[in-house]
């Protein structure tokens, strides 16, 4: 019979101790001792002497003779949710969902659970944070009625594991991993070793029984999922649920997905009756755009497999004292500094004594090279206080010599711009040819930033 033994180990030098210590006697580092769980078996070679691979197959097998069957995916009614997962919930997958407090993680998962239950799947929703009554109240608000949805308030992993064995559900939701504890680990729930051990155990249960497991994870102040980084490596899919507190829009984003493309984005609106999907995100992001204002441009950015139009705003103003400030929300500030240096050197724009504030309107974060040209034009437009045309959409990557470089999926981007009524699309010259622009769109190919500024700002 395998037994678990806990010990503490320094993360830096590997010093071991039976009890926790603030300072490692081995290397003198503070706060580096973390709990480790050791499994001690009764046999000579320990608990892992008869270990089985995930999925029960333990011997080396020719890759050609492995039967996969068809990857079973179950689609929920929330198409945005399906897309972020790569086309539906995969059986046997382990999905981690992180997000700020109160953003709607429990709401989303309860809705998804109910939709899966309606499809005849048995779903076990385990809440360690809320009582059954609280969950029921939320379910009432969301209009959920399904016999197949079982709710369970428990935090002991042994109990959870036993219940899963007896009920044999096809989906399990753990809300949240920080409240669950493994009785063999002595540290408090939410600690690094607890979170790691519990996730490993849930992964084992899910993979061997073919159950899709959704785990809710809290995020730290910096915005990453609390607990060991290792957690993100262990699971199949990592989703972040984001949104601005003052907006009702919520964005579900895949940052890792073993079953689909990453950087896929799903957009929802939080309503009284729960989350509703938003079918055309570009419309929302451009909704409040004020036409004729300098410093504003629109770019078609690819979010996974879908183009989304977003507005980039820049405000350039003379520095009053000290070093000029560079601030960016929704885009990487290093990208902004780089583009300002290109404008300075290649276009001759004197930006060294200017403060620069950049923002992606609507609270989205975008990170792809194709937004470079739009950022550069925004900066120039604000600096010269000259607006661009409201019906211009600008796409292109900018190189350090000021050249405009080819981007991927140009046709899809231009189509999205055409759909939303844009008339002119400025794109890299190298992207022209080999495809046809939609009706009513005036395509302009540019090779340098300078040329793009001439086209959009007229000087
Ligand atoms: N009566 C209501 N009408 C509309 N929206 C509501 C109502 N009650 C709650 N909400 C929304 O639901 C959100 C809370 O959602 P939920 O509890 O799913 O978040 P969570 O991410 O699970 O939070 P936590 O981190 O506390 O677990 C609130 O922020 C609010 O926007
Ligand atoms: Mg919750």
What report would you give on this structure?
The protein has 459 residues and is α/β, with parallel strands linked by helices. Helix content is 25%, strand content 27%. A 9-stranded mixed beta sheet has the order 8-7-9-10-6-11-12-13-14, sandwiched between helices. A 4-stranded mixed beta sheet has the order 15-16-18-17. It is globular. Mean pLDDT is 87; it is low at 46-51. Residues 99, 101-107, 129, 141, 270, 272 line the site of adenosine-5'-triphosphate (ATP). Magnesium ion binds next to helix 2.
Task: Chart the SSEs and their pairings.
Elements: E1 3-10, E2 16-17, E3 33-40, E4 73-74, H1 79-84, E5 89-90, E6 94-99, H2 105-118, E7 123-127, H3 132-142, E8 149-152, H4 157-167, E9 171-175, H5 192-209, E10 212-218, H6 230-234, E11 237-242, E12 249-257, E13 265-271, E14 274-277, H7 281-286, E15 296-303, E16 306-318, E17 326-329, H8 333-347, E18 354-360, H9 372-383, E19 392-394, E20 397-398, E21 404-405, H10 410-419, E22 424-428, E23 442-446, H11 449-457
Parallel strand pairs: 6-10, 6-11, 7-8, 7-9, 9-10, 17-18, 19-22, 22-23
Antiparallel strand pairs: 1-2, 1-3, 4-5, 11-12, 12-13, 13-14, 15-16, 16-18, 20-21
The chain binds adenosine-5'-triphosphate and magnesium ion (MG).
Q: TL;DR?
A:
The protein has helices at residues 79-84, 105-118, 132-142, 157-167, 192-209, 230-234, 281-286, 333-347, 372-383, 410-419, 449-457; strands at residues 3-10, 16-17, 33-40, 73-74, 89-90, 94-99, 123-127, 149-152, 171-175, 212-218, 237-242, 249-257, 265-271, 274-277, 296-303, 306-318, 326-329, 354-360, 392-394, 397-398, 404-405, 424-428, 442-446. It is an alpha/beta fold and 459 residues long.
């Amino acid at each position: 019979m395998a037994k678990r033994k806990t010990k503490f180990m320094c993360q830096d030098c590997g010093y071991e101790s039976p009890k926790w210590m603030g300072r490692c006697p081995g290397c003198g580092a503070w706060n580096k001792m973390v709990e480790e769980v050791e499994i001690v078996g009764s046999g000579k070679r320990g608990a892992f002497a008869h270990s089985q691979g995930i999925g029960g197959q333990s011997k080396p097998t020719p890759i050609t003779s492995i039967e996969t069957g068809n990857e079973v995916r179950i689609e929920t009614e929330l198409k945005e949710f399906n897309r972020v997962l790569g086309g539906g919930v995969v059986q046997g997958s382990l999905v981690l969902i992180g997000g700020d407090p109160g953003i709607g993680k429990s709401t989303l998962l309860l809705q998804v659970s109910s939709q899966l239950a309606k499809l005849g799947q048995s779903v076990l929703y385990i809440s360690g944070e809320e009582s059954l009554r609280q969950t029921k109240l939320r379910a009432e608000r969301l209009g959920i009625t399904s016999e197949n949805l079982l709710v369970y308030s428990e935090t002991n992993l042994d109990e959870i594991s036993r219940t899963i064995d007896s009920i044999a559900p096809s989906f399990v939701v753990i809300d949240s991993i920080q409240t669950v504890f493994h009785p063999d680990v002595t540290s408090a729930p939410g600690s690094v070793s607890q979170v790691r051990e519990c996730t490993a155990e849930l992964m084992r249960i899910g993979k061997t029984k073919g159950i899709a497991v959704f785990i809710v994870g809290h995020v730290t102040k910096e915005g990453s999922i609390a607990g060991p980084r290792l957690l993100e490596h262990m699971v199949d899919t990592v989703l972040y649920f984001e949104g601005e507190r003052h907006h009702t829009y919520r964005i579900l984003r895949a940052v890792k997905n073993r079953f689909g493309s990453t950087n896929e984005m799903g957009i929802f609106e939080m309503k009284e009756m729960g989350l509703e999907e938003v079918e055309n995100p570009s419309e929302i992001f451009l909704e409040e755009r004020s036409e004729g204002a300098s410093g504003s441009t629109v770019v078609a950015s690819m979010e996974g497999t879908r183009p989304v139009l977003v507005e980039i705003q820049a405000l350039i103003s003379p520095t009053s004292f000290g070093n000029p400030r560079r601030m960016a929300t929704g885009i990487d500030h290093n990208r902004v500094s780089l583009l300002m240096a290109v404008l300075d050197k290649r276009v001759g724009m004197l930006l060294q004594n200017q403060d620069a504030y950049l923002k992606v309107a609507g609270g989205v974060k975008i990170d792809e090279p194709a937004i470079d040209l739009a950022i550069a034009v925004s900066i120039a437009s604000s600096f010269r206080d000259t607006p661009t045309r409201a019906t211009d959409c600008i796409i292109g990557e900018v190189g350090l010599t000021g050249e405009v470089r080819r981007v991927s999926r140009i046709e899809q981007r231009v189509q999205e711009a055409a759909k939303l009524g844009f008339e002119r699309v400025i794109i890299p010259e190298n992207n022209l040819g080999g495809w046809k622009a939609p009706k009513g769109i005036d395509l302009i190919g540019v090779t340098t930033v300078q040329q793009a500024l001439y086209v959009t700002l007229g000087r």
